[in-house]
Design brief:
Layout (H helix, E strand, L loop, with lengths): L13 E4 L10 H6 L6 H10 L3 H5 L18 H14 L4 E5 L7 H15 L4 E5 L12 E5 L2 E6 L1 H6 L2 H16 L9 H8 L6
Parallel strand pairs: 1-2, 2-3
Antiparallel strand pairs: 4-5
Length: about 200
């Protein structure tokens, strides 16, 4: 998209993780590598930090399992993690992530934030868009937006010290996250894929 006004300068390569996950017809490995060289050690580490390794262990053909047209054989959480893994594998300088944690459950989300976003991508510039405020005390800077406008910018402690509203948002989000759990079949999808006999003949 072209900027409506002003200019944009980018120093380095950019990786983008869309909120609307997408996959191509092919294997899980095809979707992550996306034409890049296969480096086993790096590849396995990306699977781990993106919480995909356990899912793949439950699949008869591992990461050579076919995902089906438009990822038919994958859960929403798996497609989100494959999209993140694809971007993480490319080793970009800047990462723009549009709420990649929204499609996974609480435990998987915490793993991805700690192991991937915080640790694995720790030497890069990361812009994370999220409604899950439980991670805010771990980030360098917070930008609060409302209806397309920036309302405030600061560290977690700076924003909390400014007044009640931010603290109320945090309290509401923490209580909501305990009450609402996204039901992802992350531990059982292997059996579904096996039932559909969707695998790589090669």
């Amino acid at each position: 998209m072209l900027p409506a006004e002003g200019k944009i300068e980018v120093n380095g390569t950019v990786g983008y993780v869309s909120q609307n996950s997408w996959v191509i017809s092919g294997t899980i490995r095809d979707n992550i590598l996306f034409g890049m060289e296969f480096i086993p050690e790096k590849y396995q580490h990306v699977l781990y930090v993106c919480a995909l390794d356990k899912d793949i262990e439950h699949m008869s053909h591992g990461d050579l399992t076919l995902v089906g047209e438009k990822g038919l054989m994958l859960s929403g959480g798996q497609k989100a993690r494959i999209t993140l893994a694809r971007s993480a594998y490319r080793s970009s300088d800047i990462y723009l992530m549009d709420d990649p944690l929204s499609a996974v459950d609480t435990n998987v989300g915490r793993h991805i934030f700690d192991r991937c976003i915080h640790d694995y991508l720790g030497d890069t510039t990361r812009l994370l868009v999220t409604h899950q405020l439980q991670y805010l005390d771990k980030v360098d800077r917070i930008i609060i937006m409302k209806e397309g406008s920036i309302m405030d910018i600061g560290t977690y402690d700076e924003l909390v010290s400014k007044g009640l509203e931010f603290s109320v948002w945090i309290g509401m989000t923490e209580s909501e996250s305990k009450e609402e759990e996204i039901e992802e079949e992350d531990d059982l999808v292997g059996s579904e894929i096996e039932k559909a006999s969707c695998f790589n003949q090669g």
